[in-house]
TrEMBL record:
This is DeoR/GlpR family DNA-binding transcription regulator. Keywords: DNA-binding, Transcription, Transcription regulation. One of its GO terms (molecular function) is DNA binding. It comes from the Bacteria.
């Protein structure tokens, strides 16, 4: 494993476990303590992690997202359950927007068996998966291509969305919390998500609990702008209680 591959492994592992000890990384990577400490120091200089006593943890200030194919492997069981529940909120005949993401891809897999739906997305993986479902009406936003996340972003995608009416929009995110709301480390994504907030009749955040408590540089909106949040039961009870005080509905999916 090359040094860059080791650091990618550490960063990916932290997205799933939040913290990890140096001794655990030594065992997983089969390298020396000195090598692991050097990799952690480089990741810390890049702003991705923070050193703690005997190990490291993710930096809550998210600087970069994992690529789509790596995110799809993390917390898959939770994403699948969230996707199945979220799909149950869709009514026949609705125009549905699926934001780019691995959790919304799980929604797409359930909706693929439905009839009388129009599905709009900026995600190439979702549109490719649904392409052989003749009973669905499909629409892709187009726009600037985000190769890392297999999606379209930016002004062009947002402009297309503003010309449409959407009944129910499932919004994805890599980071959200009460103080910072929905945020992202990538400015181009903000325009698409904010356009959704304007055009969708019902706006639903779908996210597993591992993404709660993180924040990116670019703020999309406060959580109060949403109608619903669908999350798994690992979200702490104190956070659940605070969210339920907002003017929206919290759906907890127990795995």
């Amino acid at each position: 494993m090359t040094p860059s591959e080791r650091r990618d492994f550490i960063y990916r592992h932290l997205h799933e476990h939040r913290t990890v000890s140096i001794s655990t990384l030594v065992e997983l990577l089969n390298v020396s303590h000195m090598t692991v400490r050097r990799d952690i120091r480089i990741l810390e200089e890049e702003g991705k992690v923070i050193s703690i006593t005997g190990g490291t943890q993710l930096n809550d200030a998210l600087r970069q997202e994992l690529p789509w194919n790596e995110k799809a492997l993390i917390h898959h069981r939770h994403k699948r359950a969230i996707g199945k529940y979220a799909a149950s909120l869709v009514e026949d005949g609705q125009v549905v927007y699926l934001d780019a993401g691995t959790t919304t891809f799980e929604i797409a897999q359930v909706l693929a068996e439905r009839f009388n739906l129009t599905i709009i997305t900026n995600d190439f993986s979702i549109i490719q998966y649904l392409m052989n479902k003749p009973q669905l009406n499909l629409f892709h936003t187009g726009g600037q291509v985000d190769k890392r996340n297999y999606s379209c972003v930016g002004k062009s995608a947002a402009m297309v969305l503003r010309s449409l009416n959407v009944d129910i929009a499932f919004i994805s995110t890599s980071s959200w919390e009460l103080e910072h709301g929905i945020s992202t480390p990538h400015e181009e994504k903000v325009l698409v998500k904010q356009a959704l907030l304007e055009i969708a009749r019902r706006k639903i955040l779908v996210s597993d609990s591992s993404k709660y408590g993180k924040y990116g540089m670019f703020r999309v909106c406060p959580l109060s702008y949403l109608n619903d949040i669908v999350c798994d039961g690992k979200l702490s009870m104190s956070v659940q209680q605070q969210l339920q005080e907002l003017n929206m509905k919290l759906h907890i999916v127990n795995i």
